[in-house]
Give the backbone structure.
Amino acid sequence: MIYTVTLNPSIDYVIKLDNLKNGEVNRTKEEYVYPGGKGINVSLILKELGYESRALGFVSGFTGNYIKDVLKDKGLNEDFINIKNGFTRINVKVKSSEETEINGQGPNISEEDLNKLYEKLDTLRENDVLVLAGSIPNTLDSSFYENIMKRLENKNIKIVVDATKNLLINVLKHKPFLIKPNNHELEELFNVKLETVDEIITYARKLKDMGAKNVLISRGKDGALLITENGETFISNVAKGKVKNSVGAGDSMVAGFIAGYLNSKDYKEALKLGAASGGATAFSNDLADKEHIYSLIDEINVERR
Ligand SMILES: Nc1ncnc2c1ncn2[C@@H]1O[C@H](COP(=O)(O)OP(=O)(O)O)[C@@H](O)[C@H]1O
Ligand SMILES: O=P(O)(O)OC[C@H]1O[C@](O)(COP(=O)(O)O)[C@@H](O)[C@@H]1O
C-alpha cells in the first residue's frame, strides 16, 4: 500500500488577475478553490495513474471539513485525524504577470494527536511506500520526519521525502528512497547560486552522498534531473504547453515518478512519467488528469548524462 502524510494540508485559493498592484484594491478575473497540500496532491495524482493510496495527516475546522468532503467525493481513501484547535490553512496563489504564493502556518498539533498518527504509521508493512511531504507546523521540530523514519527503520519501507531545509537534511542519514527538492530549494540547502546543469548535478550528488538513494531535482520549465541509487544521472526535458497554474507540478512529478517506478522498476521510465505528470498539472487549472498526463508522455525525452 502507498501512504501519504500531509501534516499541514491547505485549501489552495487560486486567483487570476492581469496586473497585481501592491497597496491597492485588486479584483480577480478568475478564482478557484482546491484541496491542497503536498501529500494530498500526490495521492490525487497517484489515483489518476491507477494507484490507490491512503492519505494521512491532520485537518481542523471548516476548511478541514471541506478538504475531507472533496477528497471523499473524489473517491480518495483518506484517514485524516481531526484536531480541535484552529483551522486548516488557506494558501493564496496569485497568478498575475508572475506567480506569487502565500502559504499559511497551519494549526498546532498536540502530542496526543501526533500519537494517533504514529499509531497509524506503526501498521505499515514491508514493501509499503510512504510519502512524507510538505511543511510542518512551526511548533514541531525539524527532526519530525527523521523521527518517523527512525521509527520505521528495518521495516523495508520505501520512504519519499519532499521537504525543505533541515526537515529534509535531517532525514538523509536514514536513506530515503527518493527526495525531490526543486532547484531553488537545492540552492537554499547549500546556500549557493547554481547557474549551470553541471553545478546542479554536483550539488544533487552531494545529497546522494549524504544518504538519499535517489535524488530528483525539478527545475520548472527547465526540466528535471535525477541521480539514481546506481549513480546514473538522467536529464529530462519538458512537454510544451501553456501554463495555467503550476501549483502542484512538483507533487505531480513525485506521484508520476512513484507510479512510473512501480510500473516498470526503471528509473528512466519513472522520470518520464514524473515529467509528464508535472507538465500536465502546470498546463491545468487544477491537478492534471490521466488523459492529459499520457498525452504528453511522448514529448518527454530522458537522456543519460
Ligand atoms: N512550465 C512548465 N512546462 C513544462 N513542464 C513543467 C513546467 N513547470 C513544471 N513542469 C514539470 O513539472 C516538474 C515539477 O515542477 P517544479 O515547478 O520544478 O516543481 P515545484 O512545484 O516543486 O517547484 C518540472 O520538473 C517539469 O517536469
Ligand atoms: O506545505 P508547504 O510547503 O507550505 O506547501 C503547501 C503547498 O504546496 C502545494 O502542495 C503545491 O506544491 P508544489 O507546487 O511544490 O507541487 C500546494 O497544494 C500547497 O498550497
